[in-house]
Design a protein that fits this description.
The complex is a heterodimer of chains A (114) and B (112). Chain A is mainly β. Chain A is built from no helices and eleven strands. In chain B, strands 2, 4, 5, 9, 10 and 11 form a six-stranded mixed β-sheet that branches. A five-stranded antiparallel β-sheet of chain B has the order 1-3-8-7-6, with no helix packed on it. The relative contact order of chain B is 0.34.
Protein backbone atom coordinates (compact mmCIF):
# COMPACT_ATOMS: atom_id res chain seq x y z
CA UNK A 1 0.00 0.00 0.00
CA UNK A 2 1.46 3.33 -1.05
CA UNK A 3 1.75 5.89 1.72
CA UNK A 4 0.73 9.51 1.88
CA UNK A 5 2.75 11.47 -0.64
CA UNK A 6 3.76 15.08 -0.04
CA UNK A 7 5.76 17.59 -2.02
CA UNK A 8 7.98 19.45 -1.92
CA UNK A 9 10.10 18.04 0.93
CA UNK A 10 11.73 21.38 1.67
CA UNK A 11 10.94 24.98 0.86
CA UNK A 12 12.69 28.20 1.77
CA UNK A 13 10.91 31.47 1.04
CA UNK A 14 11.14 35.07 2.12
CA UNK A 15 8.47 36.57 4.33
CA UNK A 16 5.48 37.94 2.47
CA UNK A 17 5.98 35.45 -0.37
CA UNK A 18 3.48 32.74 -1.12
CA UNK A 19 3.95 28.97 -1.03
CA UNK A 20 1.89 25.88 -1.79
CA UNK A 21 2.13 22.31 -0.57
CA UNK A 22 0.65 19.24 -2.21
CA UNK A 23 -0.67 16.02 -0.70
CA UNK A 24 -1.89 12.77 -2.20
CA UNK A 25 -3.55 10.57 0.45
CA UNK A 26 -3.77 6.80 0.61
CA UNK A 27 -6.21 5.48 -1.94
CA UNK A 28 -9.65 5.07 -0.45
CA UNK A 29 -9.05 7.31 2.56
CA UNK A 30 -11.92 9.74 2.64
CA UNK A 31 -10.54 11.86 5.46
CA UNK A 32 -7.55 14.13 4.90
CA UNK A 33 -5.82 16.34 7.44
CA UNK A 34 -3.22 19.08 7.32
CA UNK A 35 -1.16 19.55 10.44
CA UNK A 36 1.42 22.15 11.38
CA UNK A 37 4.34 20.91 13.48
CA UNK A 38 6.55 23.60 14.92
CA UNK A 39 9.99 22.44 16.03
CA UNK A 40 9.79 20.75 19.41
CA UNK A 41 5.99 20.58 19.47
CA UNK A 42 3.31 18.10 18.62
CA UNK A 43 1.30 18.31 15.41
CA UNK A 44 -1.50 20.87 15.46
CA UNK A 45 -4.49 20.38 13.20
CA UNK A 46 -5.00 23.10 10.62
CA UNK A 47 -7.82 21.69 8.53
CA UNK A 48 -9.69 18.44 8.03
CA UNK A 49 -11.53 17.31 4.90
CA UNK A 50 -14.11 14.57 4.53
CA UNK A 51 -14.12 13.84 0.81
CA UNK A 52 -14.49 17.30 -0.76
CA UNK A 53 -15.95 19.03 2.25
CA UNK A 54 -14.29 20.82 5.14
CA UNK A 55 -15.03 19.23 8.51
CA UNK A 56 -12.90 21.44 10.74
CA UNK A 57 -10.89 24.53 9.90
CA UNK A 58 -11.20 26.27 13.24
CA UNK A 59 -7.40 26.43 13.72
CA UNK A 60 -6.61 27.60 10.20
CA UNK A 61 -5.41 31.24 10.01
CA UNK A 62 -7.81 32.06 7.22
CA UNK A 63 -6.37 35.49 6.54
CA UNK A 64 -3.26 33.85 5.09
CA UNK A 65 -3.86 30.09 4.84
CA UNK A 66 -6.15 28.34 2.38
CA UNK A 67 -6.66 24.72 1.44
CA UNK A 68 -8.68 22.77 -1.04
CA UNK A 69 -9.33 19.17 -1.88
CA UNK A 70 -10.53 18.77 -5.41
CA UNK A 71 -12.42 15.64 -6.41
CA UNK A 72 -11.97 14.24 -2.90
CA UNK A 73 -8.42 13.06 -3.53
CA UNK A 74 -5.40 15.38 -3.74
CA UNK A 75 -5.17 18.45 -1.60
CA UNK A 76 -3.17 21.66 -1.62
CA UNK A 77 -2.38 23.98 1.27
CA UNK A 78 -1.37 27.54 0.48
CA UNK A 79 0.13 30.30 2.56
CA UNK A 80 -0.05 33.88 1.31
CA UNK A 81 1.65 35.98 2.54
CA UNK A 82 4.03 33.94 4.69
CA UNK A 83 5.29 35.14 8.06
CA UNK A 84 8.39 34.14 9.96
CA UNK A 85 6.27 32.22 12.49
CA UNK A 86 4.97 29.97 9.71
CA UNK A 87 8.32 28.18 9.68
CA UNK A 88 7.36 24.60 10.52
CA UNK A 89 6.84 21.15 9.08
CA UNK A 90 3.50 20.78 7.35
CA UNK A 91 2.20 17.26 7.63
CA UNK A 92 -0.57 15.72 5.62
CA UNK A 93 -2.38 12.68 6.98
CA UNK A 94 -5.27 10.55 5.86
CA UNK A 95 -7.48 8.00 7.58
CA UNK A 96 -10.23 5.53 6.85
CA UNK A 97 -12.35 6.77 9.70
CA UNK A 98 -12.36 10.39 10.81
CA UNK A 99 -10.21 10.96 13.86
CA UNK A 100 -9.38 7.35 14.49
CA UNK A 101 -8.07 4.30 12.82
CA UNK A 102 -5.66 4.08 9.97
CA UNK A 103 -4.20 7.52 10.57
CA UNK A 104 -1.20 7.67 8.25
CA UNK A 105 1.11 10.64 7.94
CA UNK A 106 3.24 11.74 5.05
CA UNK A 107 6.87 12.76 5.57
CA UNK A 108 5.94 16.42 5.57
CA UNK A 109 7.19 19.60 3.96
CA UNK A 110 9.70 21.59 5.96
CA UNK A 111 9.05 25.30 5.41
CA UNK A 112 11.59 27.92 6.37
CA UNK A 113 10.52 31.55 6.13
CA UNK A 114 13.43 34.02 6.18
CA UNK B 1 -5.51 24.74 25.70
CA UNK B 2 -3.41 21.60 25.62
CA UNK B 3 -5.81 18.66 25.52
CA UNK B 4 -3.10 16.11 26.23
CA UNK B 5 -0.12 16.82 28.50
CA UNK B 6 3.05 14.80 27.98
CA UNK B 7 6.22 14.37 30.02
CA UNK B 8 9.15 14.32 30.07
CA UNK B 9 10.19 16.56 27.21
CA UNK B 10 13.38 14.53 26.74
CA UNK B 11 14.67 11.23 28.03
CA UNK B 12 18.05 9.53 27.94
CA UNK B 13 18.19 5.81 28.64
CA UNK B 14 20.96 3.24 28.52
CA UNK B 15 20.64 0.38 26.08
CA UNK B 16 18.66 -2.42 27.70
CA UNK B 17 16.90 -0.06 30.10
CA UNK B 18 13.22 0.81 30.40
CA UNK B 19 11.92 4.04 28.86
CA UNK B 20 8.76 5.48 30.38
CA UNK B 21 6.75 8.36 28.91
CA UNK B 22 3.66 9.72 30.61
CA UNK B 23 0.55 11.48 29.36
CA UNK B 24 -2.50 12.96 31.03
CA UNK B 25 -5.82 14.17 29.68
CA UNK B 26 -8.88 15.99 30.98
CA UNK B 27 -11.64 15.20 28.51
CA UNK B 28 -13.56 12.19 29.83
CA UNK B 29 -15.08 11.71 26.37
CA UNK B 30 -11.72 10.54 25.04
CA UNK B 31 -11.83 6.81 24.29
CA UNK B 32 -8.91 6.09 21.98
CA UNK B 33 -5.29 6.66 22.97
CA UNK B 34 -2.58 6.01 20.38
CA UNK B 35 1.15 6.51 20.59
CA UNK B 36 3.16 7.69 17.61
CA UNK B 37 6.86 7.37 16.87
CA UNK B 38 8.60 9.95 14.73
CA UNK B 39 12.09 9.72 13.29
CA UNK B 40 13.86 12.84 11.96
CA UNK B 41 12.59 13.82 8.55
CA UNK B 42 9.64 11.47 8.73
CA UNK B 43 6.01 11.83 9.67
CA UNK B 44 4.67 10.27 12.89
CA UNK B 45 3.88 6.56 12.60
CA UNK B 46 1.38 4.68 14.74
CA UNK B 47 3.18 2.54 17.30
CA UNK B 48 0.49 1.15 19.59
CA UNK B 49 -2.96 2.21 20.78
CA UNK B 50 -5.33 1.43 23.63
CA UNK B 51 -8.99 1.83 24.52
CA UNK B 52 -10.02 2.58 28.11
CA UNK B 53 -11.77 -0.75 28.60
CA UNK B 54 -8.38 -2.37 29.26
CA UNK B 55 -5.64 -1.30 31.66
CA UNK B 56 -2.71 -2.54 29.65
CA UNK B 57 -1.79 -3.43 26.10
CA UNK B 58 1.48 -4.99 25.05
CA UNK B 59 3.02 -5.33 21.61
CA UNK B 60 6.52 -6.72 21.64
CA UNK B 61 8.73 -4.44 23.73
CA UNK B 62 6.11 -1.68 23.82
CA UNK B 63 3.42 -1.52 26.51
CA UNK B 64 0.70 1.04 27.18
CA UNK B 65 -0.55 1.31 30.75
CA UNK B 66 -3.88 3.06 31.21
CA UNK B 67 -5.35 4.49 34.41
CA UNK B 68 -8.89 5.64 33.69
CA UNK B 69 -9.61 7.06 37.14
CA UNK B 70 -6.46 9.17 37.06
CA UNK B 71 -6.93 10.04 33.38
CA UNK B 72 -3.36 9.05 32.67
CA UNK B 73 -1.65 6.68 30.30
CA UNK B 74 1.96 5.82 29.72
CA UNK B 75 4.24 4.13 27.23
CA UNK B 76 6.86 1.69 28.47
CA UNK B 77 9.65 0.56 26.17
CA UNK B 78 11.36 -2.50 27.57
CA UNK B 79 14.94 -3.42 26.66
CA UNK B 80 15.38 -0.05 24.95
CA UNK B 81 17.60 -0.10 21.87
CA UNK B 82 19.51 2.67 20.04
CA UNK B 83 17.09 2.18 17.14
CA UNK B 84 14.29 3.32 19.45
CA UNK B 85 15.84 6.79 19.55
CA UNK B 86 13.05 9.00 18.19
CA UNK B 87 10.39 11.43 19.29
CA UNK B 88 7.28 9.86 20.79
CA UNK B 89 3.87 11.50 20.84
CA UNK B 90 0.82 10.44 22.77
CA UNK B 91 -2.57 11.37 21.38
CA UNK B 92 -6.24 11.07 22.20
CA UNK B 93 -9.63 11.33 20.60
CA UNK B 94 -13.18 10.46 21.47
CA UNK B 95 -16.85 11.00 21.03
CA UNK B 96 -17.56 14.24 19.26
CA UNK B 97 -13.97 14.76 18.19
CA UNK B 98 -13.09 14.56 14.52
CA UNK B 99 -9.35 14.32 14.91
CA UNK B 100 -6.47 13.40 17.20
CA UNK B 101 -5.15 15.73 19.89
CA UNK B 102 -1.41 15.30 20.28
CA UNK B 103 0.90 15.74 23.24
CA UNK B 104 3.99 17.90 22.93
CA UNK B 105 6.35 14.98 22.36
CA UNK B 106 9.23 13.25 24.14
CA UNK B 107 12.61 13.02 22.53
CA UNK B 108 14.09 9.65 23.50
CA UNK B 109 17.81 8.94 23.18
CA UNK B 110 19.04 5.43 23.87
CA UNK B 111 22.76 5.32 24.57
CA UNK B 112 24.62 2.21 23.38
Amino acid sequence: EAGVAQSPRYKIIEKRQSVAFWCNPISGHATLYWYQQILGQGPKLLIQFQNNGVVDDSQLPKDRFSAERLKGVDSTLKIQPAKLEDSAVYLCASSLEAGRYGYTFGSGTRLTVV
Amino acid sequence: QQQVKQSPQSLIVQKGGISIINCAYENTAFDYFPWYQQFPGKGPALLIAIRPDVSEKKEGRFTISFNKSAKQFSLHIMDSQPGDSATYFCAATGTGANNLFFGTGTRLTVIP
